[in-house]
Amino acid sequence: NLYALGTSGMGKHGFVRAFLERRAAEEEAPPDWCYVHSFADARRPRALRLPAGRGPQLAEDMRRLVDELRASIPEAFESEEYRTRKKLVEAQFNEKNERTFTALEERARKRGIAIVKTAAGVGMAPLRDDEVIEPEEFQKLPSREQERLKAEMTAVQQELQEALGTLPREARRQREELRKLDRLVTSAATSHLIDEVRARWADVPAVLEHLAEVQKDVVDNAEDF
After folding, report:
1. Residue 35, SS3?
2. What does the pLDDT look like over 13-60, one tens digit per residue?
């Protein structure tokens, strides 16, 4: 801060400016300072010290990068390759669930029990010669046979409940696999764009550090694009 004392109209402003311009010509150009978002604390932007005159370049590089990300990320998720890989992940889990229930149905059938799928859910029914026994026919069976079939249905029901209990866990695993796929696709769609900016700022470690944080945030929040 400078304080110049003198009467109005004597040219204080012009004198001070001329003095500073002469001194500035003898000094190195001061660095540029750019404020960037802090991903660790959004309330405290980071100040980057840049070589003189390169602040506008960084601002333009980041603006252009965001524009390109807005185009490249949606394109990646709309591609046929992504759809195919996503369907493959979903099919693998669906096939595993189908195998589990098919095996359960086969074991139940060997015990004389059918697993019946209805609009209300899944139920049990006794079998005779691989045909479901109707309720009225079941009542005609000897008491001992009825008790045996009831016990078998209870056992199969317990096994079914255990199998159903694994579904939420499998669903979580499927979602996690899909999230991994999304991160891979996002990384592939963005790496070359960010690498181009990195190449222009290879001599400024602070900018490289910021770009690394940008890339991580983009991958973590691809849905924003």
Report:
1. strand
2. 999 999 999 998 999 889 999 999 999 999 999 999 999 999 999 999
